[in-house]
Amino acid sequence: MWLQVSLLCLSCLILSCQSQAEDRASLRRSNDPTGRCHYTFTVASPQESSCPGGGVKPEMDGVLSRLTLLEALVSRLIAGADGGTGGSAIESNGEEGLQEAYAQVTGERNQLQQDKERLSRQIQELQRRVGELSQEAESLRQLPCKQTHTSGGAQRESRPASDPAYDFGNGAYQEMKAEVTEVPASHLIPEGNHNFTGCGELLSVGDPVLHRKADSITGKYGVWLQDPEPQGPLYTNKTVWRIDAVGKDVRQLFAYEDMEQFSRGFPMKVLVLPEPVESTGATMYRGSMYYQRKRSRTLIRYDLASESLASRLDLPHAGFHGQHPYSWGGYTDIDLAVDEQGLWAIYSTSKAKGAIVISQLDPESLEVKKSWETNIRKNTVANAFMVCGRLYTVASYTAPNTTINFVFDTATGVGRAVAVPFKNKYRYNSMLDYNHARRKLYAWDNFHMVTYDIRQGRASHGSS
């Protein structure tokens, strides 16, 4: 019985020989006298009528090596089949092996082709960016002078040759940027005046937007915010500030260049505060951080530019260290807040018997300018914040769907119940602060630092 061996090299050889003469190649199987099976493969030379005598030894060595390889291949084919399987099974196994090998080679080739195309795209993108940067550099070289606009058109203002921005040949990096001066709304509005557009009562609060999640137990609750009215070039309204409030001696104040670096967890600086911080009632305003000193009613103003204590003062009769906290506890007796009207303290006293007291503070000296006593108990609400001189309280710090349940207007001295939906998405909201420059609420909800957009009604021209 003939055995067709489907090996790539042997197939090519057999087909080549068969195309010249059908009887020149054969593969034969037979038993020797001892009963052992032998395979005999015969190929006639297409050119030589007899074997040359000179190079017999090297040629025999080559034949032996090829026979050895052939025997190994045949042994692999036979080993893949059962002992009683015929030639058709050997042929099938051989074809399957070749198909698997071909499929593997094809897959690797396709992968290499995909990698080549990906690298080509990356090279094209880099070349495009290099071209854009070259054009931008060229345009900067052509604009060495700043322009001022007059009624007759654009007029160029000459600069002296000593101007550093004029010297492009010194090899130093020159940064060109536009500077925009922001005028805070509180500078344009008379103190205590609510009769302006954009400072109506709070109508709705949006869903929380996540910016970062704390990665350790010290970030269970804390403070994070941005200064609505920064006072210098060192820190801007983009700078993000953060304090992890869990710990025995909380003093570290992390500064991040912008929201992107904050989200990635890369602080540009870590400041060490002169006194430890109590809880989550700190706030930022006009280049200073305001906070309550641990285990005391002392308020501290920390100047960010000089990194020093600028002023300190006791808040008269204020409860502290668990005497009049919010409902979630955490020694939240004194909560500092900022809005369009300025700096505020939200707290209580023994005289007020736990009811919320609101005091407007002088941002330089921390002295109390005026106070209001409300009729809502501080330990029955989860948190509070100020918007346009109005106090708003939140009913629950754990309920995923709760409400802003009370408003007190310092312009009229009147408070009333409201029901503005509010979400505690992560079910442990320990800090809530308003940024009037961005019209957002900043919150720290169970390791998660989030913001809420707010919507206000039109300002009324009478009492609220």
TrEMBL record:
<keyword id="KW-0256">Endoplasmic reticulum</keyword>
<keyword id="KW-0449">Lipoprotein</keyword>
<dbReference type="GO" id="GO:0005794">
    <property type="term" value="C:Golgi apparatus"/>
</dbReference>
<dbReference type="GO" id="GO:0046872">
    <property type="term" value="F:metal ion binding"/>
</dbReference>
<keyword id="KW-0966">Cell projection</keyword>
<protein>
    <recommendedName>
        <fullName>Myocilin</fullName>
    </recommendedName>
</protein>
<keyword id="KW-0564">Palmitate</keyword>
<keyword id="KW-0968">Cytoplasmic vesicle</keyword>
<keyword id="KW-1015">Disulfide bond</keyword>
<dbReference type="GO" id="GO:0005929">
    <property type="term" value="C:cilium"/>
</dbReference>
<keyword id="KW-0106">Calcium</keyword>
<dbReference type="GO" id="GO:0001649">
    <property type="term" value="P:osteoblast differentiation"/>
</dbReference>
<keyword id="KW-0333">Golgi apparatus</keyword>
<dbReference type="GO" id="GO:0005791">
    <property type="term" value="C:rough endoplasmic reticulum"/>
</dbReference>
<feature type="signal peptide">
    <location>
        <begin position="1"/>
        <end position="19"/>
    </location>
</feature>
<dbReference type="GO" id="GO:0005741">
    <property type="term" value="C:mitochondrial outer membrane"/>
</dbReference>
<dbReference type="GO" id="GO:0005758">
    <property type="term" value="C:mitochondrial intermembrane space"/>
</dbReference>
<keyword id="KW-0964">Secreted</keyword>
<dbReference type="GO" id="GO:0007165">
    <property type="term" value="P:signal transduction"/>
</dbReference>
<dbReference type="Pfam" id="PF02191">
    <property type="entry name" value="OLF"/>
</dbReference>
<keyword id="KW-0175">Coiled coil</keyword>
<dbReference type="InterPro" id="IPR003112">
    <property type="entry name" value="Olfac-like_dom"/>
</dbReference>
<feature type="region of interest" description="Disordered">
    <location>
        <begin position="134"/>
        <end position="164"/>
    </location>
</feature>
<keyword id="KW-0969">Cilium</keyword>
<dbReference type="GO" id="GO:0005743">
    <property type="term" value="C:mitochondrial inner membrane"/>
</dbReference>
<keyword id="KW-0272">Extracellular matrix</keyword>
<keyword id="KW-0732">Signal</keyword>
<keyword id="KW-0496">Mitochondrion</keyword>
<keyword id="KW-0999">Mitochondrion inner membrane</keyword>
<dbReference type="GO" id="GO:0005615">
    <property type="term" value="C:extracellular space"/>
</dbReference>
<keyword id="KW-0472">Membrane</keyword>
<feature type="domain" description="Olfactomedin-like">
    <location>
        <begin position="198"/>
        <end position="458"/>
    </location>
</feature>
<keyword id="KW-1000">Mitochondrion outer membrane</keyword>
<keyword id="KW-0479">Metal-binding</keyword>
<dbReference type="InterPro" id="IPR050605">
    <property type="entry name" value="Olfactomedin-like_domain"/>
</dbReference>
<dbReference type="GO" id="GO:0031410">
    <property type="term" value="C:cytoplasmic vesicle"/>
</dbReference>
